[in-house]
Amino acid sequence: MTEFRRGIRLGIDVGRARVGVARSDPDGLLAFPVETVPRKGEPVRRIVALAAEYEVFEVLVGLPLNLRGEDTPSTTDARRFAGELAAALDVPVRLVDERLSTVSAQGALRQAGRSQRDSRSIVDQVAAVVLLQQALDVERQSGVPAGPAVAPGQEPA
């Protein structure tokens, strides 16, 4: 088993309208919400700026497979977005299984007393936190980074 890699990571939850962004602490113990980036405009440019600001060494993009582990249109979109990020960043980008991260995020917000309408602006950030925390936990337990690396400009599989 390899030693856990220290350093700040970004977690990215790609949605049709918004992209949730989370980051880890330098020790890779906890994930925190950062911001919600509108999908309109230049979301890749904003995420590149956040990666530089936080001096990240890796970016983890959620891969929304269906419950049977199969691709959906959202999966293809996330793969394409991850390829764009990999082409624009100087750090590795990995795809991590994020099944149910948005559902978990919505449940956590509901438990906190927030309605779906009140949560719309932050649910993507919370989903990014969930997927990043899961990836950190997997790596900490296994010693292996979560998910496959993305080649720059990689087309959807």
Describe the structure in your own words.
With 157 residues, this protein is an alpha/beta fold. 40% of the residues lie in helices and 20% in strands. A five-stranded mixed sheet has the order 3-2-1-4-5, sandwiched between helices. Strand 4, helix 2 (73-88) and strand 5 (93-97) form a beta-alpha-beta unit. Helix 1 packs across helix 2 (73-88) and helix 3 crosses helix 5. The longest helix is centred in the last third of the chain and has 20 residues, at 123-142. The model has no long low-confidence stretch (mean pLDDT 86).
Strand element count:
5
Name the beta content range. Answer: 15-25%
Radius of gyration: 14 Å
Distance between the termini: 30 Å
Largest sheet entry? 5 strands, mixed
How would you name the oligomeric state of the polypeptide chains in this document? single chain
| Low-confidence regions | none
Instruction: Count up the helices.
Output: 5
Mean pLDDT, to the nearest integer, reads 86
Largest sheet strand order: 3-2-1-4-5
Shape: globular
Task: Name the helix and strand elements from N-terminus to C-terminus, one letter apiece.
Answer: EEEHEHEHHH
The helical percent reads 40-55%
- Find the structural class using helix and strand composition: alpha/beta
